[in-house]
Every structure is written in structure tokens, then in C-alpha cells.
Amino acid sequence: MTTVRLPLFPLNSVLFPGLVLPLNIFEERYRAMMRELLKTPEDEPRRFAVVAIRDGYEVALTAPGLPDPTAALERGPTAGFGPDLLKAFHKVGCIADAATIRERADGTFEVLATGTTRVRLLSVEASGPFLTAELEPLTEDPGDEAGALAEGVLRSFRQYQKRLAGARERSLATGADLPDEPGVASYLVAAAMMLDTPTKQRLLQAPDTASRLRDELKLLRSETAIIRTLPSLPAAELTRGPMNLN
Questions:
Q1: What's the rounded Cα separation, in Å, for the pair 178 and 201?
Q2: What is the b/e burial string over 64-89, where b = at least 16 CB atoms within 10 angstroms of the residue's CB?
Q3: Pair type for strands 109-125 and 20-25
Q4: Which has the closest alpha carbon to 125: 76, 194, 62?
């Protein structure tokens, strides 16, 4: 089994291969991670792993606030994640390749990365200034009838987009072409749908492309039917994702 050790960046969201990830880095543990990545030669990939948080907080408590102004403040790479790091994170994540790491005058960073490869989380190390993880790269098998399933998913996704645009009273941009390669299409649809983190995580860790597409087809039909019955979706994001204390 081939494994790799990379810096670990936990988020309250799921990153899929091929998708762009913009990051605003202000916590010291992640600033240290970016400073380390900048040591990588420019002609080599600056890679880190992104995993979705199962139990914990994306941003550590660094000052008293709601709901408990007396809560103990946390420091270090594990702040906000509890004592058992393997239980705090979902087991399947995605490697990110940072094409742009720009340090601001105040020491914070603006980062633009792209998801590349799915990985399985084997262990987490917290002895340094930021978390690192031993990871096993996961292959993407097409499965049975992936091509036909992709065609059905893309048709349903277009209907979903139209219904969603209508419910939000927004115009739909139709100029963009959707990819017809099954694996790429499955990741794009998974990332674009309004789904909660556990559902997106389920799609990420699907055993093969066909299984992911079958799941997406069911979700698209269900979500489109729900949107059809609603007059509008004024605050859909508030009902679909976790709240951020910021």
C-alpha cells in the first residue's frame, strides 16, 4: 500500500477532485502550514489534504464569546477538534494543489487550490505547528454503466438548475458546457448541488463513479421535486449547512 504524508486542513465542507478551493488563511496553525508550503520549489506541487470535520469547529475559539464567555481558549494544531482526531474528521478527503499562495502585509494568506485526488485518512500527527496526516490515495473505478448514468445525471442536473434559478428568482446562465466524462461530471454535480456536508461526504467516498451517479440521480429527482413545490428559496443556505460563529 502506497501512502503519503501531507499537511492536513480540516474544513466544514467537502472538496471534490477538479474543484477550485479559495481559502482566506488567518489562524496561526494554517499560516504556518502555508509558510511551509511556500518552501516547496515552484515547479513542484504544493499539496495539502482537505478533510471534512465530523465533530469540531473549523475556527478555534481564540477569544471569549457566545454562547459561553467563560469557555477555555484553545491553542495549537488540534484546537477545536477534541482529543481523538481520527473521530473528529471524516475518513475520506481530497488532496489540494495550491496554485496560488499569496501572503498579505498582515501575515495572513490568500490561497487558491484545486482538488486533485481522493485519499483515505489513516493517521493524524499533531506534534508540529500544524496537523499532518498519513494518507492512502484512492483509485476511481468507473463501475457499471457510468456513461449512461452520467447522461441521465446531467439531464436531471440541468432541470435542477432551472428549478433552483426559478425558485430564487434568478436568471440561469446557459452558456457553460457541462463535462460529459462520467467521473468529472459526478464530482461537478456533487459539488454544485445544495446538499449538507454528510450527503456530500457520502458522494465523495462512493465506491465507484457509477455508484456516485446513481446516488446523485436519486438526489436530483428528490431535490427538484421539493423545489417545484416551493414558491421561493430566500435563505436556502441557512437550512442546508452548518452555522459559522463568524
A1: 22
A2: eeeeeeeeeeeeebbbbbeeebeebb
A3: antiparallel
A4: 76
Query: To which H or E segment does residue 6 belong?
Result: strand 4-11
Q: Alpha-carbon distance 140 to 142, whole Å? A: 6
Q: Is 76:27 a contact under the CB 8 Å cutoff?
A: no
Grouping H, G, I as helix, E, B as strand and the rest as coil, residue 95 is: strand
Cell 446538499 belongs to residue: 195
Residue 47 contacts residue 132 (beta carbons within 8 Å)? no
CB–CB of 185/152 below 8 Å? Answer: no
SS3 24: strand
What is residue 75's DSSP assignment?
-
Structure confidence by residue, pLDDT tens digits, 69-118: 665 556 689 888 878 889 999 999 999 999 999 999 999 999 999 999 99
Do the Cβ atoms of 245 and 65 come closer than 8 Å?
Answer: yes
Report pLDDT digits (tens) over 116-174: 999 999 999 999 999 999 999 999 999 999 999 999 999 999 999 888 876 554 544 44
Q: What global pTM score does this model have?
A: 0.83
C-alpha pair distances (Å), 14 with each of 102, 129, 193? 23, 24, 12
Q: What is the pLDDT of residues 189-225, one digit of tens each?
A: 999 999 999 999 999 999 999 999 999 999 999 988 8
